[in-house]
What does this fold into?
Amino acid sequence: MEARVANSTARWAIWAAITIASGILVWGAVRHAVAQHWANASNPDQWMRAAELEPSNAENWYRLGRYRQLDFEHTDIPLAISFYGRATEINPVSALYWMDLAGAYETNRQYSQAEQAFRTAQQDYPISAEVAWRFGNFLLRQDRVDEGFQQIHHALSVDPSLTMLAVSVCWRSTQDIDRILASALPEKPGVYWGAIGFFVDANQPDQAVTVWKKLLATTAGTSLPLEKAYPLLDLLLNLGRANDARDIWGQAIAAAGIQSDFGPGGSLIWNGGFESDLLNGGLAWRYRPLDGVAMKFEEGDAHSGNRSLRVDFDGSSNVDFESIWQWVVVKPNTHYRFSAYLRSADLTTDSGIFFQIEDHSHPTNPEQFKQDPTRSTPNVIATQPWSLNDLEFVTGPDTQLLRIVLRRTPSGRFGNKISGTAWVDDVSLVPAPTPAVANP
It folds into this structure.
C-alpha cells in the first residue's frame, strides 16, 4: 500500500515538473514571439516594450540606441549611449555595437570614451576594413593625421574599393600628396589607379601625375592596362599640358607592353598606316559611331602594308562626319608637312572626304585655326585612285597640340545625302625644312 502511494506521488511529481517545464518553455516562446512582434513594429515605443520584455536580447537595445542617435525628431544622445552600453554588455564582441557607441560618444564630445570604444571594436574584429575606416576618420577629425592615415592604410589594404573616398578624406585633412602616398595609401596598383581617378575628377593634374609616377615606380616590370591611363591623358590634353601628355603616353604604352607605333621618317601620327587596331584613347586614333557611316579595316586593299581604313556612307543622311581623329603634340613656330593617301568609289555629293588640322592650343578662339582653308587637304569625291593629299604649315608661337581629323562637312545643295566609299592610308605628320625666303 505504501509503495503504491509512493509511486503515485512520484508520478505526480514528474507530471508536475513536466507541466512546469512545458509552461516555462511555452511562456518563453510566447514572450519571444511577442517581443519579436513588438521589435518589428513601426512604432519605436513598441521597441522599448520588446527590450523590456526580453532584456537579454542585445539587438533590441542596439536598435533603440540607433533610434535615439539618428532620428532627428527624437534625438537623445545620452540615452542612445546608455542603450548602446546595454547592447555591448550583453554582446561585448560585436564590433558594430562598439563602433556605433563610439559614434555616439563622439557626438556627445566624449572623445576619450569614443576612442576606447573604437579600440575595443578593433580588438573584436582586427581585420575589419570598416572598423579601421571609421576609426581612421575619427582620428582625422581629432587632427591626429598620422594615426588616422595608419588606420586608413589598413582599411584600404583590406578593401581597395574605398580608395577614392579615402583619398578625398585624406586630401581634405592635409593637401600633401607626398604625405598621403607615404602614409595612407598601400602600395597596390588598384589603390593608385583609384587615387589617380580621384585627382582627375577633382581637376588636380599635378597630384594625379605624382600618383602616376608612384604607380610606375612600384609596378616596374609588370604590365599595366593602357586604357586606365586615358582619363589622366584627357585631363592633361584638355588643360593644354601637351608635353606632359606626350611623356605619360610614352610611359603608358611601355608599361602596357605595346611597341611604339609612330610612323616612319619621324612621323608624329600614331598607327598612320592602320596596321594596328584602333586604341580609341591617348595619342592614338579615336573614333565614335555615327548613324549613316560604317568604318572598318580593309584587308588587302592598301596604299602600302596590309590594310587601310575603309569608310562607307549609306546614303541615308547629309552627315557631318568627324568620327575618327588623333591628338598630336607639336612644337611652336615649327614648319610641318602633313600627308595622307586617299581613294574613293562612287562618293556622291559635292562635299566629300578630307583631312582637317585643328589647333587646340587656343581655347579662347578654337575656331580660328579650324576655319583657315590652308589647314585642310583637298576634297575627295566621286571615284578616284589612291592619291597623295598633303599640305604644309607653320605652327603658331603658342601651338603645342593639334587635332588631325578625317572630315566630311554637310552639303548645302539639293541631293546632299552622301553615299559611297572612301579609303585612307599612310597618314603622316613630319617636321619639314623651312622654305627659304626669296630675296626681293
Q: What stands out?
A: The longest strand covers residues 335-347. The chain has 15 helices and nine strands.
